[in-house]
């Protein structure tokens, strides 16, 4: 079983990335051959500053490794170290109707946010399909926001295979229901573009501030509160054991327990949860050669796997 996923280098990963994708991808690396990459070509669709992109790429690599990516089990690489994905994107573009791409939620979202409607943004799902199909991936662990992209990938692979013969593997997304959409501090999906994230790594002060900004209703300290409809509890659940969660819910219902108390408990638990990863991150920051070398080696392996598929694809479509 080949497992593949990617993440854009668009800033410090947040707990939505961690629970939505990273954690399950790291668990799956025990079960099969995993490919994980930094989607730097995709990042170009929103025109980041070049220096910023380079900086975010290495930071993301450090963060992945610190959070539990094991480069002995996982081929870890930069998307742009495999330019063959652009070649496959071009071939798949001819399978992708404009109507199919116009239906993509992420494109509509980006337009609504005022991004320039460039063709890279429009054909974003085709590049993502190429990422998945070029490695003949079986399983794609992602958060729910990427589900439609994996469905588009399946459509394109089926169209390709129907036209040229059974070459591409039809992948499946793997979305864990309880972490499919991690809410942000305002209750919407946690996302860098909504400015509602809680970063995994930052100063204690900044993380605490993000936690304290979680939106709640305005019930007073002494009033009983509803734990089932509270953003703080929704996030606390990710870190707490059953017993801890039951205790917090009981305190909510009993009253005399303020949202500030709950946020402080959430912050402490979170800070403790990420402590070993913070330590690993510090070590990696002092060993950047190791991080670059890991990406370089991953890139070599990924390129070899991609080239194998491309040889079959080129032959099938009549380019050889
Ligand atoms: P990106 O960088 O936006 O997010 C990386 C992963 O984190 C998940 N995620 C979440 N899950 C639950 N709750 C949230 N609030 C939340 N926010 C983010 C995302 O679902 C994703 O799994 N297009 C992709 C990158 C990509 C890719 C690929 C992924 C490029 N090629 C091929 C898989 C396969 C993206 O922008 O993810």
List keywords for this structure.
3-stranded parallel sheet, binds tryptophanyl-5'AMP, 320 residues, Tyrosyl-Transfer RNA Synthetase, 7% strand, 5 strands, mainly alpha, Rossmann fold, two-stranded parallel ribbon
In a few lines, what is going on in this structure?
The chain is mainly alpha-helical. The chain folds into two domains: 2-181 and 288-317, Rossmann fold, CATH 3.40.50.620; 202-273, Tyrosyl-Transfer RNA Synthetase, CATH 1.10.240.10. It is built from 15 helices and five strands.
Strand order of the largest sheet: 1-2-3
Q: Averaged pLDDT, please?
A: 95
Low-confidence stretches: none
Radius of gyration: 21 Å
Main pleated-sheet profile: 3 strands, parallel
Output the CATH class name of the largest domain. Alpha Beta
Describe this structure as you would to a colleague:
The chain is mainly alpha-helical and 320 residues long. It folds into 2 domains: 2-181 and 288-317, HUPs (Rossmann fold, 3-Layer(aba) Sandwich); 202-273, Tyrosyl-Transfer RNA Synthetase (Orthogonal Bundle). Helices cover 56% and strands 7% of the residues. It has helices at residues 15-28, 40-43, 50-67, 84-93, 98-102, 105-112, 119-122, 124-134, 147-164, 204-212, 231-239, 242-254, 259-273, 275-285, 288-317; strands at residues 2-7, 33-38, 74-78, 139-141, 172-174. A 3-stranded parallel sheet has the order 1-2-3. Strand 4, helix 9 (147-164) and strand 5 (172-174) form a beta-alpha-beta unit. The chain is globular. The model has no long low-confidence stretch (mean pLDDT 95). Tryptophanyl-5'AMP binds next to strand 1, helix 1 and helix 8.
């Amino acid at each position: 079983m080949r497992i593949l996923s990617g993440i854009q280098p668009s800033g410090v990963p947040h707990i939505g990335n961690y629970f939505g994708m990273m954690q399950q991808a790291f668990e799956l690396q025990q079960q099969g051959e995993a490919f994980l990459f930094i989607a730097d070509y995709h990042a170009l669709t929103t025109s980041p500053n070049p220096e910023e992109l380079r900086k975010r790429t290495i930071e993301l690599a450090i963060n992945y490794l610190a959070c539990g990516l094991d480069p002995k089990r996982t081929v870890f690489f930069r998307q742009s170290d495999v330019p063959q994905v652009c070649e496959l994107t071009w071939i798949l573009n001819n399978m992708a109707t404009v109507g199919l791409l116009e239906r993509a939620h992420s494109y509509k979202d980006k337009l609504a946010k005022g991004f320039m409607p460039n063709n890279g943004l429009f054909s974003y799902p085709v590049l993502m399909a190429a990422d998945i199909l070029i490695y003949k991936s079986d399983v794609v662990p992602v958060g729910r926001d990427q589900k439609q992209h994996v469905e588009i990938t399946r459509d394109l692979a089926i169209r390709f295979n129907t036209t040229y013969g059974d070459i591409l593997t039809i992948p499946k997304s793997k979305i864990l229901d309880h972490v499919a959409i991690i809410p942000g501090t305002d209750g919407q999906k946690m996302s860098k573009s909504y400015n509602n994230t809680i970063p995994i790594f930052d100063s204690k002060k900044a993380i605490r501030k993000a936690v304290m900004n979680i939106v709640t209703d305005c019930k007073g300290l002494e009033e009983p509160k509803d734990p089932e409809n509270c953003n703080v509890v929704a996030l606390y659940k990710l870190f707490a054991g059953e017993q801890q969660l039951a205790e917090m819910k009981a305190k909510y219902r009993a009253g005399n327990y303020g949202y500030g108390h709950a946020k402080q408990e959430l912050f402490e638990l979170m800070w403790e949860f990420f402590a070993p990863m913070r330590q690993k991150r510090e070590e990696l920051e002092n060993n950047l050669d190791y991080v670059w070398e890991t990406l370089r080696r991953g890139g070599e392996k990924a390129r070899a796997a991609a080239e194998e598929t491309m040889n079959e694809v080129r032959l099938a479509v009549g380019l050889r």
